[in-house]
Write a structure and sequence with these properties.
- With about 775 residues, the protein is of the alpha/beta class.
- Helix content is about 40%, strand content about 25%.
- α4 packs across α9, α12 runs antiparallel to α18 and α13 packs antiparallel against α20.
- The protein is globular, with a radius of gyration of 29 Å.
- The mean pLDDT is about 95.
């Protein structure tokens, strides 16, 4: 009886630990009031800063962007700092996309250290996307830095210099931080450690998702206030095409930590990224975490940071566990060896049958494939029922909790049925060993290819190996064997549960297959000790129980979709753009929606076309074409190109053009060349930093479905125009197309405002274009 009580207690403790590990990933602190002590970070004080600039979009180059920078500079000045605003023209070559250039305005201020060994660089960006107010991206970062500056300027002087950097044009190629890197040159050899603040959602815990080199010292700096963090995310993020300001600083040889808030990403880069949707608990968590790390690093000899090794790290409840990267491969090698030794020991005690281990070992991959297929199929079904789900930028719509619970229940049903089936001919020890074969086999190759991710498999396999060895000392029917195996599942629970909890909001329902596979592994390790109990149930009862769990899961997913109807708080993303053909005085309403709302078709009609790209390269048609209908001609920003000089030397022409807005103040100005008649040899943007190489010619837009296959995008263009020099080859006239892009639709052309239950689809809505062609 005592043994059975121990089994029950062990099982309950394991469940409670799993719940606690999940809550740590989700639970945010209460926001601190505005009248808190000056040494404490206050989300309410920081929120007051966001209110000054995040009530409307403020993309680079706009009047709103200038107002935002003026507010930031003013707040820094009030703190007794001396903010410096640097203006520069930055140029980024495009290999398989248009070249990029832009005028940027960065703001920096330094809190001088008492005996600096380097700089701690705190970074956030002041610009937003064209259609989102940017209250979280990056209002959370900007306001956190201002609040941290208040605290540091009123407290003891730090040892190291603390530099506050507010970059411009992060949303378009990180032009601001690139200009900052160029401005540094080789001014100092002292180390710089970066803390970059980002957002890819409006709620949830602060996530430290990327580090630079020498991560062991950096992760130690998080010990005072650990965020959600796993070295797996750093490994994956480095291999993704996504960039932040930290990406450019890391390329420049700096190291540091990259933070973001990622919950409720449905409002990311959309009109819903406003102050009403910013979670103050998330702001508090981000601020507390970065302030703690900044204090530790500003008191550290930063030369020691640059001499430290890399590390592996992950959350275990409220603790951030880390160990040097040098231990990763030995531990990974130990995992399969430990499992072999445990199996040998259990075999000697006649507690393990090698033949019985084969059954779960050979069939468990089918469970993983089934759960991956379940996640893949579920998203396809969801998009089939709600086609607009595909319009959410991160593949995660609103109110995903019931759908996630439903998918986990379906995974539990699949895993439970498999455990019951395999347990008919294999004992608990055999089943546990068979499951552990796979993480044991994956540990070493993962340690070699993705060392920061190897801990997932290493500790799961080591835990099961310990359970097999301990369980072998008890009889098959003994509750102590079950207790040993339940205890052996603890590493899998504390490692996998936080990861599964984090991956759902990170990857979204569109990529739910990944967290479901890890959930299946954790559930299988938990089910292995219970196969004896499952064996005692009749087959019909087992199937019935699994069916009930599966039906409950399906009901959760189905209920989530049925209840998720658009309303003012959860609007449906739609695409609607305005395009003006300035050459012919014709305008069109355009939409990329595959399943458009009636409000959209009220403007565009039902006709689809793929010909708009010929005169507006921004309007590349997706499969099926664009919806397009006539629109009234309304005043929008329009482009103009004038020839400054045109000379010929042998087979090449050198044409200097001035490209600027003829009217309005666009956020972006583009220049394209018809490469079917003329070959671009190279190009140059006037005002680029000294030493910037000429831009390549050829075709940097080979994917374009129009002749405009060479392009240059100019962000925040100078109202007076930007000079661009083209060196071309060919006997035919040079054909160029200039295009403006601006936020918003012309109010004079809108007959019906956008309903409250609709919002702009990120990146392809709420924009106005105007284009004009020239033959030179």
């Amino acid at each position: 009886m005592r043994a059975r009580i121990v089994v029950l207690v062990a099982g309950l403790l394991l469940v409670l630990i799993g719940v606690d590990c999940a809550l740590v990933v989700h639970a945010v602190p209460d926001p601190v009031r505005a009248d808190a002590a000056p040494s404490a970070f206050s989300a309410y004080r920081a929120k007051a800063d966001i209110e000054h600039f995040a009530d409307a979009p403020h993309p680079s180059g706009t009047a709103r962007a200038e107002q935002t920078r003026a507010y930031v500079s003013g707040q820094l000045t009030r703190l007794g700092l001396k903010p410096v605003e640097d203006e520069a023209t930055e140029v980024v070559p495009g290999d398989s996309a248009s070249h990029l250039a832009g005028r940027v305005h960065d703001i920096s201020a330094t809190i001088a250290g008492s005996s600096p060994t380097g700089q701690v660089l705190l970074v956030a960006h002041t610009d937003s996307v064209l259609t989102g107010p940017g209250a979280s991206d990056d209002g959370l970062g900007v306001s956190s830095l201002l609040e941290i500056a208040r605290i540091l300027t009123k407290g003891p002087r730090p040892r190291n210099d603390v530099v506050l950097l507010f970059t411009d044009s992060e949303e378009t190629g990180q032009l601001g931080v690139r200009a900052y890197v160029h401005s540094l040159g080789k001014a100092t050899d002292k180390p710089r450690v970066v803390l970059n603040l980002e957002a890819r959602g409006t709620s949830g815990r602060a996530v430290m998702f990327e580090t630079g080199d020498h991560s062991s010292a950096l992760v130690r700096a998080l010990g005072g206030r650990p965020p959600v963090a796993t070295s797996l995310s750093a490994e994956v993020y480095r291999r993704l095409p996504n960039d932040t300001d930290f990406t450019q600083l890391r390329k420049a040889g700096m190291t540091g930590l990259n933070f973001a808030v990622i919950g409720d990403s449905a409002d990311y880069h959309a009109p819903g990224d406003d102050l009403a949707h910013v979670h103050l608990g998330s702001l508090q968590d981000l601020g507390d975490t970065v302030l703690s790390a900044a204090r530790r690093l500003s008191a550290t000899d930063l030369r020691d940071v640059t001499r430290s090794s890399d590390a592996t790290w992950f959350n275990v409840g409220p603790v951030l566990v880390s160990y040097p990267s040098g231990a990763v491969l030995p531990l990974a090698v130990a995992a399969p060896l430990a499992l072999l030794l445990a199996g040998w020991y259990a075999r000697r005690r006649k507690a393990l049958r090698p033949g019985a281990v084969l059954r779960p070992a050979l069939t468990f991959p089918l469970v993983l494939l089934a759960t991956a297929a379940l996640g893949w199929a579920a998203w396809r079904v969801l998009v089939l029922i709600r086609p607009y789900y595909a319009s959410f930028l991160t593949g995660d719509p609103y109110r995903t909790g019931p759908a996630v619970i439903g998918l986990l229940l379906l995974t539990a049903a699949v895993t439970g049925l498999w455990a019951a089936w395999t347990g008919r001919r294999a004992g608990a020890l055999d089943t546990a060993a068979g499951i552990a074969v796979w993480p044991a086999l994956l540990a070493v190759p993962t340690a070699l290819l993705l060392p920061g991710a190897a801990y997932v498999f290493t500790w799961t396999a080591l835990g099961v190996a310990a359970g097999v060895a301990l369980g072998a000392r008890a009889g098959e029917e003994s509750p102590w064997r079950t207790t040993a195996l339940l205890g052996a599942a603890l590493p899998a629970v504390v490692v996998l549960v936080p990861l599964v909890t984090l991956l759902f909001p990170t990857l979204g329902l569109a990529t739910a297959a990944a967290p479901l596979v890890l959930a299946a592994l954790a559930l299988a390790v938990l089910a292995a000790p219970l196969v004896r109990l499952l064996r005692g149930l009749r087959a019909r009862r087992l199937v019935a129980l699994a069916a009930v769990v599966a039906l409950a899961g399906a009901a959760c997913v189905g209920g989530a979709v049925a209840a998720d109807r658009p309303d003012a708080d959860h609007p449906r993303p739609v695409s609607l753009m305005y395009a003006l053909d300035a050459d012919h005085g014709r305008a069109y309403w355009v939409s990329e929606d595959a399943d458009p709302a009636s409000w959209v078709t009220g403007y565009t009609g039902q006709r689809r076309t793929d010909t708009l790209e010929d005169w507006s390269p921004a309007l590349a048609a997706p499969p099926g074409g664009l919806l397009a209908g006539p629109a009234p001609v309304a005043p929008v920003a329009t482009p103009e190109v004038t020839t400054v000089s045109d000379t010929r030397a042998g087979a090449t022409r050198t044409v200097r053009l001035k490209v600027g807005p003829k009217s309005g103040k666009p956020a972006l100005l583009a220049l394209y060349v018809d490469t079917s008649t003329t070959r671009v040899v190279r190009a140059r943007v006037e005002g680029a930093p000294a030493g910037t190489p000429d831009l390549s010619g050829g075709e940097n837009r080979p994917y374009a479905g129009s002749p405009w296959k060479w392009g240059l995008l100019m962000v925040a263009p100078d109202p007076r125009g930007q000079e661009v020099t083209l060196v071309v080859r060919g006997d035919k006239p040079l054909r160029v197309l200039a295009m403006t892009e601006d936020a918003g639709l012309p109010a004079q052309a809108l007959s019906r405002p956008r309903p409250a239950d609709l919002t702009w689809e990120p990146g392809a809505a709420g924009l106005s274009f105007a284009s004009r062609r020239y033959t030179i």
